[in-house]
Design a protein that fits this description.
This protein is mostly helical. It contains nine helices and no strands. The protein has one domain. The two termini are about 15 Å apart. Bound molecules: zinc ion.
Amino acid sequence: MTTFSYILLFSFAAMIINTTGIFVMQKNESWTIKNKEYFMCFAAGVLITSPLISAFPNAVSNNANAGIAALLGFMFMFSVNRLIKSKTNQQELAFGITALLGIAIHSFVDGAIYSVTFHVSTIFGIASGIGLVAHEFAEGVITYSVLLKSGVHKNKAFFYAFLVAALTTPIGALVAYPLISTLNQSTLGLAMGAVSGVMIYLSASHLLPSVKSEDKHHSYIAFGFGVLLAFGFFFMK
Ligand SMILES: [Zn+2]
């Protein structure tokens, strides 16, 4: 399989899992809210392990300034998600729109990550891609909930959530692809550093803190499973 077909496969899988999140949330809200934690914890395990043991060391070996890029990636996602967080508790549509803008940027960046990681290596693309795809479930659920809170009707909410959170990921991958293809090793190192910062943010600051403490025990098993899986890929390469 070519790099491009891997990127297509994973970014479209992300879109499908995201849409599944929206769909099951619409069908069975209480089940979904309870179970989305497992997806989040599993994704967090993968997304903290891959950058720490593989992506970031790789980035630094290609470019000594990859650490600065990682910090910028982290800060960028921090700002985007502040925008989402500060608005998700509000009920009015105007606030919902700001939150949705944040989610759209976030999902677009998620897509761009596939273009970066698969350019570095297939194994690394797959290892981090599994975590990214898993976190999409919760993202679909969250987006749909934001829309309902903003007073959007169920069926419209489904459609808008799909546009904002699901479709933006393959678009991000496809927009980033031609750009990433032209990068030399050193610049790819910087991109990889930024991606590492984004992944660390997603795991440690976005997914893990939103896991509710009641389900702690099983959530930790899902987290540990994600860590082990990413470790497994690391030794496969
Ligand atoms: Zn995401």
